[in-house]
Design goal:
The complex is a heterodimer of chains A (437) and B (120). By secondary structure, chain A is α+β, with helices and mostly antiparallel strands. Chain A folds into two domains: 140 residues, Jelly Rolls; 271 residues, PPM-type phosphatase domain (Phosphatase 2c, domain 1). Helices cover 36% and strands 27% of the residues of chain A. In chain A, strands 1, 2, 3, 4, 5 and 6 form a six-stranded antiparallel sheet that branches. The longest helix of chain A is centred in the first third of the chain and has 41 residues. The two termini of chain A are 58 Å apart. Chain B has 120 residues and is of the alpha/beta class. Chain B has one domain: Transcription Regulator spoIIAA (2-Layer Sandwich). Chain B is 37% helix and 32% strand. Chain B has a five-stranded mixed sheet with strand order 1-2-3-4-5. The longest helix of chain B has 15 residues. Chain B is globular. The chains are: A alpha+beta (437), B alpha/beta (120). At the A-B interface, loops of A face helix 2 and helix 3 of B.
Chain lengths: 437, 120
């Protein structure tokens, strides 16, 4: 048993009791229990009722909410005062021993008994509680300031990332293009792109999904998107420097060799990320198609992406399965290039896995089969395909927060070539990027 | 949201010594680091041929591929010389993920433990 004097010193050494009268400290010392607690021992659990407060004589404890660390407390600190001094307040946080510690335990009954005999001790105890509360308020204020700076930074990031998506799909005679992207967080790893290539009206179509979520995925999204766009349009960029439209001998001509053109972009992008950022183990699944609008011929590489669907009046006609693996991890990959022709009235529907993996409050997934079922019946033009799928997913999810970004593209060859999308109001409805709240 | 992944590590002898990781549970963003540390522990103790038995994995997301990529990079500079990372026994849902992402371009995927062990 420790000497009473030693316990008096230890109590007086704590910030909470340092101004308490000597007589009170002596009585408290006679009522405390000293304990040795091993690292990992849980002491308080948030939400429980408790009547004990603790003084740390030596060691360190962790104040936390589940896995989230709130702060460490060390020698001279106290915890559990709110539970010990009030009858109806539960523990406000959990406390677990971080390093082997020596603690003094003091019970509510003893504190109130001593206070009834020494009412003069109430002042110092109220003062100590106020000191502690003001420290907590200051801490909360500092955290709120940091959170608001962080929130502002995320808003800026979100605005900048939005600029990495097309403002609206290009207008192509005889085609209707629609796109929808909803990020699960402020920023995310999904992306899509449309760009016109060369002087023969070819259209580049990209949909991609970078692994992981949030800021990391968003940084790599901008990298993958820019590398694909830069390699796909390198000749245009160099041509403007050369002052003329002549092609460079270094870059494959998309009009005469679509396969080499697509492979070139995919290889450069893959090799760049895999050799420059290999220690990050980040990758993207990506579909890159080159469409000849005049004929409906679509050349494509599918690098490990969910197979886009070709849909006609009779439902799903073909799936554009992966023609090679995801990109960004290992250099020197070989992707096959495939070709399919979209007949008048057919459309290409591409999406990211956030659609099939959307969850409802019971944790069930939307599933790809449900999506394919929607596509089996004619659900109208590009914008109504996107709206129908989006609404079906939203109804299924029933307000449940989603963990993955969701992207949908619909590229339709209209049956009557004189029909095109030129109505700006319709354009607005077909290009949507929703940001999470 | 966190899931669990139980990992049992066994030493087997194929043509060369092979460290087999029997995985049970979900291989996702919340369990990826555990797998990488277990592999690091084995590589640190001299292992360089690693075989991951996926028969007990009921879910694998993109984090699984990230983990295997990181481990394969680590094996390439193993203290005992560069070794190999192979996979065996993927369950049906895992097989679908491997197929879509194109894992076979990166890693050998075997159907049974015997042939996997002999392949090292």
């Amino acid at each position: 048993m420790p000497e009473l004097n030693e316990l008096v010193d230890q109590l007086q050494g704590s910030r909470f009791f340092r101004t308490a009268p000597k007589a009170v400290i002596h009585e408290l010392a006679a009522s405390v229990t000293r304990m040795n607690a091993k690292a990992g021992t849980p002491l308080l659990s948030k939400g429980d009722f408790g009547t004990t407060m603790y003084v740390i004589v030596d060691g360190r404890v962790r104040v936390h909410e589940d896995a989230l660390l709130l702060r460490y407390l060390t020698r001279g600190d106290t915890f559990g005062e709110i539970g010990a001094l009030t009858r109806n307040t539960t523990r406000t946080a959990s406390v677990t021993v971080e390093d082997d510690s020596i603690l003094l335990k003091l019970d509510r009954e003893a504190i109130y008994r001593i206070l009834s005999v020494h009412p003069e001790a109430a002042g110092p105890i109220i003062e100590a509680m106020c000191d502690k509360a003001s420290g907590i308020v200051e801490d909360v204020t500092q955290r709120a300031i940091k959170a608001s700076v962080f929130e502002r930074e995320m808003e800026i990031g979100q605005r900048i990332q939005r600029d990495f998506l097309p403002r609206s799909p290009p207008e192509i005679p005889g085609w209707r293009l629609g796109a929808y992207l909803k990020a699960a967080r402020e920023v995310g790893g999904d992306f899509y792109d449309f760009f016109q290539v060369g002087d023969r009206g070819l259209l580049g179509i990209v949909i991609g999904d970078v692994c992981d979520k949030g800021v990391g995925a968003a940084l790599f999204m901008t990298l993958f998107r820019s590398l694909i766009r830069c390699t796909a349009l390198a000749d245009e960029f160099m041509g403007s420097d050369r002052g003329g439209p002549e092609r460079s001998a270094l870059w494959p001509d998309p009009a005469s060799d679509a396969g080499a053109y697509l492979r070139n972009s995919i290889s450069v992008t893959n090799n760049y990320v895999a050799t420059t950022h290999d220690h990050m183990s980040m990758f993207a699944s990506l579909f890159f198609g080159l469409l000849e609008p005049a004929t409906g011929v679509l050349h494509y590489i599918n690098a490990g992406h969910e197979a886009p669907v070709i849909v006609g009046n009779a439902g799903v006609r073909a799936r554009l399965e992966p023609t090679g693996p995801v990109i960004g991890l290992f250099p020197g990959l070989r992707h096959e290039v495939k070709t399919i022709t979209l007949a008048a009235g057919e459309r290409l529907v591409a999406y990211t896995d956030g659609v099939a993996e959307a969850k409802n409050p019971k944790g069930k997934q939307f599933e790809e089969s449900r999506l394919l079922q929607l596509l089996q019946v004619d659900i109208g033009h590009a914008e109504s395909v996107i709206t129908t799928i989006r609404e079906a997913v939203e109804t299924f999810a029933d307000g449940c927060p989603q963990f993955d970004d969701m992207t949908l593209l619909s590229i339709e060859r209209v049956s009557d070539a004189s029909e095109t999308v030129s109505d700006p109001a319709r354009q607005r409805t077909t290009t949507t990027r929703e940001d999470s709240p | 949201m966190s899931s669990t992944l139980r990992i049992a590590v066994m030493q087997e002898q194929g043509t060369a010594p092979v460290t087999v990781f029997q995985l049970n549970g979900s291989l996702d963003a919340s369990t990826k680091d555990t797998l990488e540390s277990k592999a690091e522990e084995a590589i640190g103790s001299g292992a360089n041929n690693l075989l991951f038995d996926l028969s007990g994995v009921d879910y694998m997301g993109s984090a699984g591929l990230r983990a295997f990529h990181a481990i394969s990079k680590r094996i390439a500079v193993a203290e005992t010389g560069p070794g190999k990372l192979k996979l065996v026994n993927p369950s049906d849902p895992v097989s679908r993920v491997l197929k879509t992402l194109g894992f076979d371009a990166f890693f050998e995927v075997h159907k049974d433990l015997d042939s996997a062990l002999k392949s090292f």
